C-alpha cells in the first residue's frame, strides 16, 4: 500500500491547481473566466474566503563586475584610484597578511600617490558575531569611502558587513540578519564601493551579495543576503591560490561543487512563494532559473574534473586555474538561484562542533576546533541528492552523468541513461560518496565525532535556515512535521557511508 500523503503535500497540490492564469502583477487581478466560470465564482462567494498564496513569476540576474587573469591583483591600486577614494579600508586575515596576495596588494596601493588606506588584519576564519562587531566598529571609526577585501570567503564577507554597517551607522547586527533569526530588513541605501580579491577557489563571495557568520549563542551559522552587498568588482587572480594548503584547496573546491549541485537542483524560481509585493523584497536566492543553470552546470563539470587533480598534485596550474574560474561561475549560479539542504544542514554541523565533537580538520592552521565549510557541506551530500532526485530525475541524471564522466561509481555497471527514475537517487548517492572518498573527505558525520544521539540537535539547528530550506525540493512544510521527519532521515543516512 502506498504511504498516505501528508497534509502539506495535499495543500500544495490544491494550491497548484488554483493558479493557471498569468502570474504577473499586471494580470494578477484579471478574472478571465471560461464559460460557466461566472456561476462558479458566484458560488464561491458563499464559501469561507481563502487568500491564495501567489507564486513567483520572475527572476533577476545580478553579479559583480569580474576580472580574471594571471597577476591581475597588481591592478587594484589603479582601480581604487580611478574611483577617487577619500580613504580605503583594507580587510584581510592574519594568515593572508603574511602571503604573496597581500604583499602584491600593498605594493599596488603604495604605487598610487595620494591613495590613503588603513589595514584591518584581524578577520577571523569562520567569522562570529564578536568578530564581525569588532570589524564593524573599526570600520565605523574610520568612515571609509571605499573597501578592499583580500582573502577567502571569511574576509570578503566580513568586509561586506563592515561596509553595510558603516552606511547604517545606528543599525544593530540583527536588523539585517536573515529572518527568522534576525529581522531580515531590506537594504535600501546605496553601499560604498567594495573590491574583492579572493585567495581561495571556493566561496564565490566576490560575485554575490551574501555574507555568512557563526551565531555562537545558537551554535549555527546564518548571514545576510542582499544584492545591495555584492562587490563592485571581483579581481580573480590565478596566482592567489598558490599559497593554499592542499586541505584548503579541497574544502574550498567542495564548496564550489555543492554550490553548483544545489543551485541546479533547487526548486524552479516560479515555484517559490510568496511572490514579493515589491521588487526590493525579491530574495537574492530565487530558485533555479535558465541563466543560473548555465553557470552552475559548467562549474559542476569543472569541479568534478579538476578538484581530484589538485588533490593529487597541488602544483597543477591548469587545475587551479579552472577551479578558480569554477568558483566564480558557481558564485554567479548560486548567487541568483540559491543553495538548499547541504548548506542548510552544514551550519549546525560546523556550529555545534565547537561545543560538541570539537573535531579539528587536518591541514588547517588554527588551534580551534574546525569542520571547514566545504567539508561540513559535503558530509550530507550523498543522502541529500538521493532524497531530492525524485523531484527532478532529469536534472539529477545530468549530475550523475557528470560524475561518471570524470569519476567512478562502485556499484553502477550500466549506462546511467538506462536507469529507471527510481534508481537515479541511489546511484547518485554512490557516485558522490565515491568521489568524496577519493578526495579523503571524512565518510559521514560519525567520522567527525557526531553520533545518532546528536541528530535531534542538528535538526533543530537546521530548521531556522529558511532562506535556503525554502528552496529545497521535496521537503514539504519545512517548519512542520514534514521538515523534521525529512531532515532527520537525511542526517541519519549521513552518519556513515
From TrEMBL:
Domain Fe-containing alcohol dehydrogenase-like C-terminal: 287-351
Subcellular location: Mitochondrion
Record's catalysed reaction(s): (S)-3-hydroxybutanoate + 2-oxoglutarate = (R)-2-hydroxyglutarate + acetoacetate; 4-hydroxybutanoate + 2-oxoglutarate = (R)-2-hydroxyglutarate + succinate semialdehyde
Domain of life assignment: Eukaryota
GO MF entries: alcohol dehydrogenase (NAD+) activity; hydroxyacid-oxoacid transhydrogenase activity; metal ion binding
Any Gene Ontology CC annotation: mitochondrion
Main location: mitochondrion
Domain Alcohol dehydrogenase iron-type/glycerol dehydrogenase GldA, chain residue ranges per copy: 65-238
UniProt-listed Gene3D superfamilies: 3.40.50.1970, Dehydroquinate synthase-like - alpha domain (1.20.1090.10)
Keyword list, A-Z: Mitochondrion, Oxidoreductase, Transit peptide
InterPro entries: ADH_Fe/GldA, ADH_Fe_C, Alcohol_dehydrogenase_Fe, HOT
The enzyme's E.C. designation: 1.1.99.24
PANTHER family: ALCOHOL DEHYDROGENASE (PTHR11496), HYDROXYACID-OXOACID TRANSHYDROGENASE, MITOCHONDRIAL (PTHR11496:SF83)
Family, per entry: Belongs to the iron-containing alcohol dehydrogenase family. Hydroxyacid-oxoacid transhydrogenase subfamily.
Protein name: hydroxyacid-oxoacid transhydrogenase
Source organism of this protein record: Rickenella mellea
Amino acid at each position: 500500500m502506498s504511504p498516505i500523503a501528508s497534509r502539506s503535500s495535499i495543500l500544495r497540490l490544491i494550491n497548484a491547481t488554483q493558479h493557471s492564469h498569468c502570474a504577473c502583477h499586471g494580470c494578477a487581478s484579471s478574472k478571465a473566466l471560461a464559460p460557466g466560470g461566472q456561476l462558479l465564482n458566484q458560488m464561491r462567494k458563499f464559501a469561507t474566503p481563502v487568500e491564495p498564496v501567489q507564486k513567483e513569476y520572475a527572476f533577476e540576474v545580478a553579479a559583480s563586475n569580474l576580472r580574471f587573469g594571471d597577476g591581475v591583483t597588481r591592478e587594484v591600486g589603479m582601480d581604487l584610484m580611478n574611483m577617487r577614494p577619500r580613504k580605503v579600508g583594507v580587510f584581510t586575515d592574519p594568515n593572508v597578511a603574511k602571503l604573496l596576495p597581500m604583499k602584491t596588494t600593498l605594493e599596488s596601493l603604495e604605487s598610487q600617490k595620494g591613495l590613503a588606506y588603513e589595514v584591518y588584519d584581524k578577520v577571523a576564519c569562520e567569522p562570529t558575531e564578536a568578530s564581525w562587531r569588532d570589524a564593524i566598529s573599526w570600520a565605523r571609526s574610520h568612515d571609509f569611502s571605499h573597501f578592499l577585501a583580500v582573502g577567502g570567503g571569511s574576509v570578503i564577507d566580513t568586509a561586506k558587513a563592515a561596509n553595510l554597517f558603516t552606511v547604517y551607522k545606528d543599525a544593530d547586527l540583527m536588523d539585517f540578519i536573515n529572518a527568522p533569526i534576525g529581522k531580515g530588513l531590506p537594504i535600501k541605501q546605496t553601499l560604498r564601493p567594495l573590491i574583492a580579491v579572493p585567495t581561495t577557489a571556493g566561496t564565490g563571495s566576490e560575485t554575490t551579495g551574501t555574507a555568512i557568520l557563526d551565531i555562537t549563542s545558537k551554535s549555527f551559522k546564518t548571514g545576510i543576503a542582499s544584492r545591495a552587498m555584492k562587490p563592485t568588482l571581483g579581481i580573480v587572480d590565478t596566482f592567489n591560490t598558490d599559497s593554499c594548503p592542499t586541505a584548503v584547496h579541497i574544502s574550498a573546491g567542495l564548496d564550489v561543487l555543492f554550490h553548483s549541485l544545489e543551485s541546479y537542483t533547487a526548486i524552479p524560481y516560479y515555484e517559490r512563494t510568496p511572490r514579493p509585493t515589491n521588487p526590493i523584497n525579491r530574495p537574492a536566492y530565487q530558485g533555479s532559473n535558465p541563466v543560473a543553470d548555465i553557470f552552475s552546470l559548467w562549474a559542476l563539470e569543472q569541479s568534478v574534473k579538476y578538484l581530484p587533480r589538485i588533490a593529487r598534485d597541488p602544483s597543477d596550474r591548469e587545475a587551479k586555474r579552472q577551479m578558480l574560474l569554477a568558483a566564480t561561475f558557481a558564485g554567479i549560479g548560486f548567487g541568483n538561484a540559491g543553495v538548499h539542504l547541504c548548506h542548510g544542514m552544514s551550519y549546525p554541523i560546523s556550529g555545534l562542533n565547537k561545543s560538541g565533537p570539537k573535531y579539528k580538520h587536518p591541514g588547517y592552521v588554527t588551534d580551534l576546533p574546525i569542520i571547514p565549510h566545504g567539508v561540513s557541506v559535503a558530509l550530507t551530500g550523498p543522502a541529500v541528492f538521493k532524497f531530492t532526485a525524485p523531484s527532478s530525475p532529469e536534472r539529477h541524471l545530468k549530475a550523475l552523468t557528470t560524475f561518471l564522466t570524470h569519476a567512478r561509481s562502485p556499484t553502477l555497471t550500466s549506462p546511467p541513461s538506462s536507469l529507471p527514475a527510481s534508481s537515479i537517487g541511489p546511484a547518485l548517492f554512490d557516485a558522490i560518496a565515491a568521489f568524496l572518498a577519493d578526495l579523503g573527505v571524512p565518510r559521514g558525520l560519525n567520522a567527525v565525532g557526531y553520533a545518532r544521539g546528536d541528530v535531534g540537535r542538528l535538526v533543530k539547528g537546521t530548521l531556522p535556515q529558511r532562506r535556503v530550506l525554502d528552496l529545497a525540493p521535496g521537503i514539504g512544510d519545512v517548519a512542520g512535521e514534514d521538515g523534521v521527519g525529512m531532515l532527520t532521515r537525511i542526517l541519519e543516512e549521513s552518519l556513515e557511508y
